[in-house]
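Researcher: Structure for this, please.
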Amino acid sequence: MAEDHAVRFARIARELAAQRSEQAVLERVVELAVQELDRCDDAGIMLLKRKQEVETAATSSDLVVHSDEAQARNREGPCFDAARNTVPWHNAVYRIDDTATEDRWPAYVPEARELGVGAMMGFQLYREEESFGALDLYAKEPHAFDDGPERLGWVLASHAAVALNSVRTSDQLHTALETRQEIGKALGRVMERYGISDDMAFAVLQRASQDNNIKLHTIADEVVRTGRIPGV
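Model: Predicted structure, token format:
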């Protein structure tokens, strides 16, 4: 049994690591949740912004969209609370065993029951300065999730968090490289136009950025596209 779990966990890790964008990771997490977790009928990922704005980032069905809307409207629910968890990377799970008897989230649970939700679990995926992400797992039948699916759900959420961090780091490095290359091209244009050194050309771009309150990479893009330095 332990070996079977190890194989499943390794497969999940490889699947998520193979994704090349943040959205691809989120969508694959949802697919894996339904495929790998026993009795999991639906899954989704909720994004919660600092201003309490809610967005469904990935979903297996419209039920998840409606559930997220209900949680956003009532400002409560397992996924909503998981996203707001104040302890990053903490393996807390927000679980409803039976929506017919659950007395927490009194405004949300009746709406979930009307949607056909019997049981559900919420796990935090990540927590950042301006946004939070959570994974929600749904079952039509009450008491569908015991400790086994809960542990696997936590493992899935943990692997997803690592994959998201990896793809974001890759995106940031790629963006940084592109920005550096764009600034390099702009420096070449300015040096050629004014017959000045690279240090002086950089000072010109930096001054244009400060005077116009525009980011340096935006100034560089303008120079490369038009040959014009804003404000000069």
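Researcher: Any notable elements?
Model: The chain has a mean pLDDT of 81. The first helix runs from residue 2 to 17.
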